[in-house]
């Protein structure tokens, strides 16, 4: 089934991959404040027209945006305190707290809500009411979940008292009555997050910049989504998973990867017309112009691992919802501005599902060299309906990658790219921009020419990820012109 023209087909574009937490400024991390708007201005100067980010949800202690407490909510850490001060809801300009920036942020958010109650205009109060009404499908559950979690020192919902864990109506009613302020604070924070993001999106779209989001196919077990929708997941009576997600053993791992996410009860999802998923995609469409679906192959078939298994070896392939799922989404929305993350173990059935719904896939240049001419990631094998990257958030920076290559890969690069091959990362940047793919996205680290010390995530390593940030003085005054000239040369500016 072919949908209408995909958004990336309208013209050749180039973009940048940067999560907002990596922006300068903010309290403890980058946020949606002035630096985000300044970054859009920088993109305009460069001729870049797509800003790709990672999932925006509230994270757990490991800070991974791919294991969030909600598929709908925004991370309060991304709320700009500076903007709250400019709106008149904070009495004093926020000051950085190097000792405990997180505690300082949430103290300021509580002060901002008090300021809102005192000073907000009638239009602001009406906007809050409209926000609550417009997000009624998920906001009450998430705000209650987060308030319970906060009052229990961050404990996972499985460790809550039985009546709250199992959502007994009387227990929830009593909790809501006793903790109304805490719940209202969570609602207020979500209102602010969405308002700030929509302001940023409007600013970007007015400058012909598309915002590009990311949906992980699976969700964290400790999340409002699983707590409030247990019937949609393959769980035991006690709430623990019967089976969990992962990927099978491969060239990179003899034991595969055991991710631990609970798996969906797709039969139950189908019986409801995939309404849970429709609401999820609806929220993301409200935030983004393009949406990547992480681990797209899981819709065709996914690796099911017994929850008791310590590794992924004992898993098995189980058929996913396939075309029926996307037919439902296409019927509900009328179009699918989705991108298929089609990396890893991909077969003809996955490619057919992607192509039947006219979804672009991904080409990663760091995967292209060291093999034969039939490697699908080599530029001469690219197709227009695709996105080309030097690397993603899970890869080393291109400079770090190049330093780690063996002699065979270096020789392949030199033969393929010519004498310019040693000019990394710009040789690979140029190859991505020159590709026939409609959209080329390059991590900011590669635009800045940074080494492996600046990578965002190292899969399989538990600590030190998701913390990278840049500084404005790392951007040379000549960089925007250099990028723009490259984009103009290959018709992407």
TrEMBL record:
Leading EC class: transferase
One annotated GO molecular function: 4-alpha-glucanotransferase activity
Entry EC number(s): 2.4.1.25
Record field: transmembrane: none
Coiled coil: none
InterPro entries: GH, Glyco_hydro_77
Entry-linked Gene3D superfamilies: Glycosidases
UniProt cross-references to Pfam families, sorted A to Z: Glyco_hydro_77
Top-rank taxon: Bacteria
Keywords: Carbohydrate metabolism, Glycosyltransferase, Transferase
Catalytic activity: Transfers a segment of a (1->4)-alpha-D-glucan to a new position in an acceptor, which may be glucose or a (1->4)-alpha-D-glucan
GO terms classed as biological process: carbohydrate metabolic process
UniProt xrefs under NCBIfam families: malQ (TIGR00217), PRK14508.1-3 (NF011080)
Family stated for the protein in its record: Belongs to the disproportionating enzyme family.
UniProt protein name: 4-alpha-glucanotransferase
Species, as recorded: Thiohalobacter thiocyanaticus
Upper lineage: Bacteria, Pseudomonadati, Pseudomonadota, Gammaproteobacteria, Thiohalobacterales
């Amino acid at each position: 089934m072919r949908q209408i023209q995909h958004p990336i087909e309208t013209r050749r574009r180039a973009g940048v991959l940067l999560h907002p937490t990596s922006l300068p400024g903010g309290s403890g991390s980058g946020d949606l404040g002035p630096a985000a708007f300044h970054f859009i201005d920088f993109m305009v100067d460069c001729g870049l027209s797509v800003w790709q980010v990672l999932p925006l949800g509230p994270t757990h202690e490991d800070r991974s945006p791919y294991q969030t407490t909600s598929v709908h909510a925004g991370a309060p850490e991304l709320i700009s305190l500076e903007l709250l001060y400019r709106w008149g809801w904070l009495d004093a300009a926020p000051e950085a707290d190097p000792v405990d920036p997180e505690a300082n942020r949430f103290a300021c958010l509580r002060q901002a809500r008090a300021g809102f109650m005192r000073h907000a205009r009638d239009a602001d109060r009406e906007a809050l009411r409209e926000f609550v009404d417009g997000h009624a499908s998920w906001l009450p559950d998430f705000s209650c979940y987060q308030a319970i979690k906060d009052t229990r020192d961050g404990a996972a919902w499985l460790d809550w008292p039985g009546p709250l864990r199992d959502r007994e109506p009387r227990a929830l009613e009593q909790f809501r009555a006793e903790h109304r302020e805490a719940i209202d604070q969570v609602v207020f924070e979500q209102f602010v997050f969405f308002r700030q993001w929509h302001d940023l999106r409007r600013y970007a779209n007015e400058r012909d910049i598309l915002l590009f989001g990311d949906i992980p196919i699976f969700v964290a077990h400790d999340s409002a989504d699983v707590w409030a929708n247990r019937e949609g997941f393959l769980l035991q009576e006690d709430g623990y998973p019967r089976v969990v997600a992962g990927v099978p053993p491969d060239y990179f791992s003899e034991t595969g990867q055991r991710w631990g996410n609970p798996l969906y009860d797709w039969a139950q999802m189908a019986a409801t017309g995939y309404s849970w998923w429709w609401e999820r995609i609806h929220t993301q469409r409200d935030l983004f112009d393009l949406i990547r679906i992480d681990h797209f192959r899981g819709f065709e078939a996914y690796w099911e691992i017994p929850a008791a298994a310590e590794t992924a070896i004992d898993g098995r392939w189980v058929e996913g919802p396939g075309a029926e799922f996307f037919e439902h989404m296409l019927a509900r929305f009328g179009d699918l501005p989705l991108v298929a993350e089609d990396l890893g173990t991909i077969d003809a059935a996955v490619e057919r599902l992607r192509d039947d719904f006219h979804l672009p896939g991904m080409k990663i240049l760091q995967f292209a060299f060291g093999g034969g001419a039939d490697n699908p990631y080599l530029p001469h094998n690219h197709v227009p309906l695709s996105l080309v990257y030097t690397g993603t958030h899970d890869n080393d920076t291109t400079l770090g990658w190049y330093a780690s290559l063996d002699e065979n890969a270096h020789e392949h690069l030199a033969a393929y790219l010519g004498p310019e091959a040693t000019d990394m990362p710009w040789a690979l940047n140029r190859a991505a921009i020159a590709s026939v793919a409609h959209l080329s996205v390059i991590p900011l680290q590669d635009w800045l020419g940074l080494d492996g010390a600046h990578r965002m995530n190292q899969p399989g390593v538990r600590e030190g990820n998701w913390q990278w940030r840049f500084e404005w003085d790392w951007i040379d005054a000549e960089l925007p012109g250099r990028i723009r000239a490259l984009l103009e040369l290959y018709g992407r500016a």
